[in-house]
Specification:
Elements lengths: L1 H47 L1 H8 L4 H26 L1
C-alpha cells in the first residue's frame, strides 16, 4: 500500500512537472509569434510608408486618393499573399 502511494505521488509530480514544461514552451512559442507578427506588421507599414501617405491623402482630390489607395494596395497585396501562403 505504501509503495503504491509513493508511485502515485511520483506520477503526480512527474505529470505536474511535464505540464509546467509544456505551458512554459507554449507561452514561449506564443511570445515568439507575437514578436514576429509585430515585426512583420511594422516592417510592412514602414516599407510602404502608409502613415505618410494617409497624412497626405487628406488634402487630395477623389481621383488622387483612389490612385494612392491603388498604389498602396498593389505594394502590399504581394506581401500579404506571400504571408498567407507561408501560413498554410
Amino acid at each position: 500500500m505504501t509503495l503504491n502511494f509513493i508511485t502515485n505521488s511520483n506520477k503526480e509530480k512527474v505529470l505536474i512537472q511535464t505540464t509546467h514544461s509544456y505551458v512554459k514552451a507554449y507561452h514561449s512559442i506564443i511570445h515568439q509569434y507575437k514578436e514576429l507578427s509585430e515585426v512583420i506588421f511594422t516592417g510592412l507599414l514602414n516599407f510602404t510608408k502608409v502613415d505618410e501617405r494617409l497624412y497626405k491623402i487628406q488634402t487630395k482630390t477623389f481621383n488622387q486618393k483612389e490612385k494612392i489607395r491603388q498604389e498602396l494596395y498593389l505594394q502590399t497585396i504581394k506581401r500579404f499573399n506571400l504571408l498567407k501562403k507561408k501560413k498554410s
